Queue: 3 jobs
Job 1
Amino acid sequence: MTSASKKGNCRSPHKPPKDYIEMKKLFCTALITTWFAAASTAGTIEGVLEKGPSHSALLSVSPESGDLIGYAFKNQSPVGKAIFQSCLPGMLCRLGDSSTRLLNDAASLKFDDQPSGWYEITKARDVGMKTVVFGYEKSLKTRYGVATVREDDQVFLFRGQPVKPTIEGNSGLSIVANYEMGQTDILLLQNTGGTACPALFHIVHVSPSGLRTSPEFGTCSDIIYPSFNPNAGVSISILDFQGPNEPPLAQRKATVTKTIYKWTPDGQITKNGKPMR
């Protein structure tokens, strides 16, 4: 609505006559309704899947306004079955071909985050999950020095020197996320492999007291959803993975399960709640 209001110039710094105000309200209402109707003819939808008892939703941030938008659906509907067949809660879900309509009565929808606008998904095809990264960077300036990936051998450097133990990429090494947690800078590194194991990960933890690194971790999948809590640390949800030579049933099962790794403020990593050795 913010975008529509700006485009329609629905605010005036002066005090116009009453009939003008009413006419302006009608114009703005029509403009906003038209904007929502146009938005409801969705093609591609991407959002983080949140599951509820009877209804679930894809939650997405509008690129125009920055508002949180909810795309709801009934769990047992054809749309719900199509989404849950290929997407997991807490991961970024993509609908390549979809249709929506404006959802006027959303009072019964209770989710952790409450969007400013709701739509109902009426069609969902070409459904799958996507990875979420900040980028694939080879250099990043932290508060304590520059982190880089040496191009000739894909070795991670901090302040121009390899860290110990050495972090080295297979086909490639990239900085894919970074966070500031108090006095600590946290980097997430992706070690890119091949078809047998597309990706593994490292955490680098830099603070005034020095640098710490995690052991290499991951499921071999490169589809991840990292999140950050300043009190709890970094959580990385990673889709499970079975290689191309594994039985088809095992490969399919892996695409609908995930493993959650957490890096705590004290520099420890856990896998599904249990400390990693």
Note: Residues 129 and 267 are 29 Å apart (CA to CA).
Job 2
Amino acid sequence: MEYSYRYFEQIADFLKTKVDYTPQIAIILGSCLGPFAEQIENPVVVDYKDIPNFLVSTVASHAGKMIFGTICGRKVVCMSGRFHNYEGYSFEQLVIPIRVFKSLGVETTILTNAAGGINVDYRPGDVMILSDHIKMNGDSPLRGRNVPEFGPRFFSTVDMYTPRLRELAKRCASASDLTVHEGVYYFYSGPQFETPAEIRAFRALGADAVGMSTVTEALTAAHCNMPILALAVITNMAAGVMDVPFTSQEVNETAKSISQQFSEYVKSIIREL
């Protein structure tokens, strides 16, 4: 299916009936990072299933709710739960949330995710600010007919993870108890975790962490010329990095254990935007 500009406008028009303001910042929350949504003041909650022509989360740890409200005096819209290619959605479908945010008038996008650590200096519970990514599998989310109202057919991805926002995140990290790195994220479509051989290959290519989301959203935001900050919570060391195997339960437990600290860190960034 090809998506017209009007398709996204219609979804945005529906959401505009729920609030009487334009959110400045959009935040997409990754696996088990949903507790951040509890920090939103004066929340207006819309279930994904109630939004016409929108997608629905099928992952248990994703709440499937869009929440409008205020964080640190800034008007925000927050997705508590995102969509993935491994759920059966095409890469073209994964453009929908970001283009809806653009149609709402959002100025800045903050993306978060749970990721596996490839860099041997990382530890579970650390945070990585994305400086770049590697995507070598799957289609581009911008494949198909271009929608010029959002951006040009061909666009640069140099510094798509906005340098000034990365610098802001690093400054805010100095006041946090979290250990914060900056590095390269490898997109892996999943849903299976990576093999040790794949992780060795990703490390050789320059990747510091690996995960199954974020990049399609970031590419769509870059096409829309929206400033982007992406933050990965290192919930486990990737396959083969440590001598012990890991499970999805470990991923969930680590994310939950630092969710409060991570929420405060993200709030400190929003406060300075």
Note: The two ends are 37 Å apart (CA to CA).
Job 3
Amino acid sequence: MGTQGPPRIIAIANQKGGVGKTTTTLNLATALALADRRVLVIDLDPQGNLTSGLGRKSQASEGRTVYEALTAESALEFGQFVVGTDVKGLSLVMADRSLTGAELEMVSMIARETRLRTLVRQLRDTYDYIFIDTPPSLGLLTLNGLVAADTVIIPLHSEYFALEGLADLVATVRRVRTSLNPQLEIEGVLLTMHDERTNLGQQVAREVREFFKEKVFETVIPRNIKLGEAPSHGIPAILYDKNSRGALAYLSVAKEILSRELQVNKTTEEDHG
């Protein structure tokens, strides 16, 4: 295990649904936990797929979810909303359908865009990585995720129409950077559900790499049946079948993130040297 860098808060965002946001959050977080990092995942999607993908759906109905934390009228201890998972080193803040009402309730609240950031900052030094799984929209919940984050990973389905939605998301990231979170950077674009055999898959990958250059992860996530099966068993694909193509791909993405972490540490040490 290498030298660990400062804590990182990473939002996983794309307003298009079905691009692999939750699958990416779940498996990337698990891979980093397996690399002895302390990891927290925050389910910010009312569908609650991240919560059920970690086998905690029944627990969420007991009412200690991100919804209660975001809509509380007075300051609270965010740590009380964190639950353990079956993955060593991986913790979770749960979500369920009640979160659907949060956007409406938050509209009239003071500092509505920064509520999650205020909560997450309490836990920043407890974890090496905090991942925020955002819903497939550019509403107030996703905005809270982007304002709370240091960087954003954009999972991108390797299909033509995926590129159209990408422009809207990049514009949103720029707006957030201008007004609410000047430090926000794009961590990387991750090509998901990729099929190298099709001309379209190759073309999309080429266009994305031309536009985002080194921001695109080297690893691409292939179409893989195990990635789809694992959530119904309440465990990440990396633990469901660690030798599947999907699991190996997410382990590879985690290695890319860890090597960036080492690079950041090296640069920081040189700056202070």
Note: The chain has twelve helices and seven strands.
